[in-house]
Design a protein that fits this description.
3 helices, 3-stranded antiparallel β-sheet, 7-stranded antiparallel β-sheet, 155 residues
Amino acid sequence: MRRILVFLAALILWAESAAADVYGRYGVQANVPVRFVMQPPPGNDDGRSFVDDYGAELRVWGAWPLGSVAADEAATVAYYADVGGAVTYRARGTSWYVLSGYLGNAIFYLRVERGQTCEGDPVLAHMELLYPEDAREFYDPMVVRLAKSLGFGPC
């Protein structure tokens, strides 16, 4: 019975996906499920935050790279350690990396992809989903779709 409920929850999440939209001055694009409500933009317009009724927060933003993808990854791992997080999963390609782990009672998943602005400047697209650990079966299927949708919008 539990597997059926998990399958139905995943199916509902799939049906809730919104079309890709571009967020912030860097042109970062992602498919944000309609269950998430967009919060006011930050003053620097780097991206957007979204929250849902079940305690999850989704952040989509852009930033200038620190150098290589590996250098940015190392700085991000240090950030999570500084705020009390524990990175339990890491993966990296030539132009992307993924970090996942625990931050308090929440699970975090971060995907970062290197790309360029419409002006041709190098930039990083970030997508971070934070969700309650006890809701893992509900949010884990969403992570895959969100990660695949991360990129840069049309110029």
